[in-house]
Structures are given as C-alpha cells and as structure tokens.
Design goal:
About 65% of the residues lie in helices and about 10% in strands. The radius of gyration is 35 Å and the shape is elongated. The chain is α+β, with helices and mostly antiparallel strands and about 425 residues long. A hairpin with a 2-residue loop joins strand 4 and strand 5.
Length: about 425
C-alpha cells in the first residue's frame, strides 16, 4: 500500500465516520499515539542537547575560575561539583532515552532541570572568592530561567527566580565584606541582580505564553484542515465516502489487487422505490431512512469482517441519490455475494422505525468481481447492469454481473484516467 493510501486510511479510520473495523481503528489510533510520543521525545532530546551545550560552557568557565584561584574549592570539591553536574545530566538524558520520563507529570523535566541549574549556580556563588566568579553564578541563574521558558508558566518561573534570588542575596550579603564591598554596594548590586532576574522571568514567561498561543493556533489549524478534508471526502448527509472518494478507494483497491494478484469485488446498491418514501413521508424522513440504511450496512459489514468473510479495509460510499457502492478488496465473488445477501436481509428484515413510523425499505444489488487488469468504468458498468437486472426481477434481491471480458482493450491505463465526477 502506498504511503498516501496508508495516510488516508488512518485518517478515515480514526477521525471520521468512514467504515472500518474496530480493530483497524484501534490499531491506527495506537500507531498515531506512538508517533506523537516519539515526536515529542525527539523534541525533548533536542532541548536536552541544547541544555548540555550550556552546561559544557558553564563548566568550562567554572574550570577556568577554579584554575585561576577565584573559587574557594580544593580539587576534590571541584571534581565533586563537576561530577554532580555530569550525574544530573546523565539522569535526565537517561530518562528521556529510556522513556521513563513519560511517567512524570512533566515529561520534559524542565522544572527539575532549571532547579538543578539554580542549585549549581548557588553553590558556585557560595564558593566564589571574587566578584567575577560570583557574577558568573548570577549569569547562570539568568540562563537557567531562560531555559525554563520552553515549558514553565509564569508562576513556576517566578518561584524558581525567587528561590534563586533569595539564595544569591543571602550569599552576597554574607560574603560582601570578604569580596571588598560595603553594605551600600552590596545592596545596589543585589538590586541590579534582582532587576535582571525579574526582567528575565517576565520575558521568559511572555515567550512561553507566545509559544502556547502558537501551539493553540496550530491545533486550531489542524482541526480546520481536518474539517475541510472531511467535507471534501465525506457525504454530508450519511457521513460515508462521497462519490469522488469512493471512486478513489476503488482505484486504489484495483491497483493493489493488480500488484498483489488478489481479487477485488464491488456491490452497487439502490434503495427500491425510494421516491415513494420521500413523497409519502417527506424528505426529512427520507434523509433519516438513508442514515438508517447506512448504519445497518456498516454494522453488517463489521460483523462480516470479524467472521473473515470480507477482507479488512472495505470502503463504503454514496454513489449518488439513493445509490451506494461497497468496495471489497481481497474478496472473491462468493464472499461478495454472501456479504450482499446479509446486507439485504439486514435492511429488509426489520422495518425502519423513523419518527414513530414503521417503514419497510428494501434494497437491490448488483455485484461484480474485477477481472484481470479490468478498467474501473467497465467494472462499474457490469455491476450497474446486474443492478438493473435485480430491479427487473422484482427488486429486493442480489444479482451477479456477467464475467469480465478477456479483452486487451479494457486494460487499465493507470490511476486517474477515469473521471469520477458525474457530469
């Protein structure tokens, strides 16, 4: 099956009311969920790599400051600080790669990663022996809050900024005299750091809101596109394929059957004397009758699918007016005849109960199995002649089309050569 056909079948089976087995719909929906999770995990891994680059730069600066004697750490303490960061990143990366992060409330772990940056920055600030190294710790706080804009909301960013600034303020006031600052200079410095962290929090929150708004717009656009696709492919009254789409389904089934050497059968339906239903009961009741007919056909087709009498992937569409077409891939004439008879019995066996009225509805059918390399219009013409014969034989019956002619003149010439438009 082509990628285009597989994509169409997934959309049909999960989002819209085109007929498909419950198992197929569940499998398709499950496949989409797996795809969405994998896409989100790739995005999280990409963000983690960006954070890892930031960590590498941060530890490069920290290493220089330690080597230059600006950090009050011996080599064991410095190595412990570095290994702590490596361990933290190994945990985050391992959880994303293993998928264990999916069990968390926030699978991106942005809050935890940002908190880790805040803790490491405060450790750097506490061990700083110069203003330069302490300023590096303040910049680490800013970078950590900017990273949080990917996921965190304003409240979460404010909490982390508050924790970071409170810790930095305590450290700066305790170590200010040791770094050569008087009380006034320490306060001014804290005002500058606090203002920078506040601006960073507001900016990161604003960008995060824009990101969420963009995500919401993208979701609305996807819904709108799905709605347009539904309108282009499905009959507005019955919810099944429209004329153009059911022809495309038939074309694809014939192409696949030709490629795989499998049978393809069709059944062409026509509700008997349906004009009388509209004339006697009104068009609104007639519309309800069409919907009830479609419901019974779909229920019967699903039961046949479970019994293995009709291959999974059958397509059902409105051919025009009160005419319908059922496409049955990998189904020989015998199976198609059995399906047609069961559908006929399901329709005529019990009157339709519509608006408190019992209405007897019957259906005539013409079935045909595609011949080797048979053209779409030729196959439909054979089924149509069989349907006409069913009408002549008294209606409420199934008739089988004459065998396909073994004539090179009817060879199919490729997809799209037959115009499905009625005009």
């Amino acid at each position: 099956m082509s990628d285009r056909a597989h994509q169409r079948r997934w959309v049909d089976q999960t989002d819209f009311p085109g007929w498909a087995s419950a198992r197929a719909r569940a499998e398709s929906a499950s496949a989409y969920r797996v795809h969405a999770i994998a896409r989100d995990q790739r995005l999280r891994l990409h963000r983690f790599r960006l954070a890892l680059i930031g960590y590498c730069f941060f530890y490069g600066v920290t290493g220089y400051l330690w080597w230059d004697g600006q950090l009050d750490l011996d080599w064991i303490e410095f190595l412990s600080l570095v290994l702590g960061g490596v361990f933290l990143n190994a945990v985050f990366g391992g959880m994303i790669l293993s998928g264990k992060n999916l069990a968390l409330r926030d699978p991106s772990m942005t809050g935890l990663q940002t908190l880790g940056v805040v803790v490491i920055a405060l450790v750097l600030a506490w061990t700083s022996g110069t203003l330069v190294s302490q300023d590096a710790a303040a910049m680490a706080l800013v970078v950590g809050l900017l990273f949080g804009m990917f996921r965190l909301d304003a409240r979460q960013l404010a909490v982390l900024a508050g924790v970071g600034f409170a810790g930095f303020a305590v450290i700066a006031l305790l170590h200010g005299a040791r770094l050569g600052l008087n009380g006034h200079e320490s306060v001014v410095r804290l005002v500058i750091v606090g203002g920078t962290l506040t601006w960073t929090t507001v900016f990161a929150s604003y960008v995060g809101q824009l990101r969420k708004r963009l995500g919401s717009r993208n979701s609305e656009l996807k819904i709108a596109l799905a709605t347009l696709e539904k309108l282009a492919k499905y009959d507005g009254l019955t919810g099944i394929y429209n004329r153009r789409e059911i022809f495309m389904q038939l074309e694809e089934a014939l192409e696949e059957g030709l490629r795989l050497g499998t049978s393809v059968s069709i059944s062409l339906f026509d509700l008997d004397s349906f004009k009388d239903v509209n004339d006697v009961y009104g068009h609104s009741i007639g519309d309800e009758a069409l919907r009830e007919f479609v419901r019974r056909v779909k229920n019967t087709a699903r039961s046949l699918d479970r019994l293995g009498r009709v291959a999974e992937g059958a397509g059902f569409g409105r051919y025009g007016g009160e005419e319908f077409l059922l496409v049955m891939p990998m189904t020989q004439l015998e199976g198609a005849h059995d399906a047609a008879e069961r559908i006929r019995e399901a329709v005529s066996g019990t009157p339709f109960l519509l608006d408190g009225k019992e209405i007897q509805v019957t259906v005539s059918q013409g079935i045909a199995e595609a011949g080797p390399s048979e053209r779409t219009d030729h196959l439909l013409a054979r089924a149509d002649r069989a349907l006409y014969q069913a009408k002549r034989d008294g209606r409420d019956c199934v008739r089988v089309a004459e065998p396909a002619e073994d004539d090179p003149g009817i060879a199919r010439e490729g997809p799209g050569f037959f115009n499905p438009d009625p005009n």
